[in-house]
Amino acid sequence: MIDRLFTYGTLEIPAVFQAVALASRPSRPAVLEGYARFLVRGECFPGITERPGHATSGTLYFDLELEMLARIDRFEGREFERKTVDVSMAGERFSAYVYTVRSETLSDEPWDPKRFMERHLEEFLAARSAWIE
What phi, psi does 121 have (nearest 5°)? Predict the structure, then answer.
């Protein structure tokens, strides 16, 4: 089993990751080549899809347990698919899970994490608090 998860959106935010996984985990910045990140249509959070020539920066979490992955699967829902990819971190490559969506699910608008945290984080967590708890 792979015990690493590459995140590129809301799960990069420690408060969101901890609320979903019910624990914190070691993490480091990483890059996923061949994928592009955009806002999901009609939502305040992003998704990624394969796109040659692009790269997505994010956070690589380590030492995940099966229970955590099961919780994250439920959090991501049916629109997102967990895949195994190779990510780069400080010149090294690691196999990790990542959640992707079909390209038609995405808008053309890039995701702005600062804007999300300023305008949507509180509402995002509140809307999911019943599930997360």
Answer: -55, -50
Alpha-carbon distance of 67 to 33, in angstroms, equals: 28
**Which residues lie closer than 8 Å to 50 by C-beta, 6 or more apart?**
34, 35, 100, 103
The string of DSSP codes covering 48-67 is EEEEEEEEEEEEEE-S--HH
pTM flag (> 0.90) = yes
Q: What is the pLDDT of residues 29-67, one digit of tens each?
A: 999 999 999 999 999 999 999 999 999 999 999 999 999
User: Strand (E) positions, 15-91?
Assistant: 27-39, 46-61, 81-89
Query: CA-to-CA distance for 94 and 106, rounded, in angstroms?
Result: 26
Task: Read off the amino acid at residue 90.
Answer: A
Residue with tokens 């010149």: 91
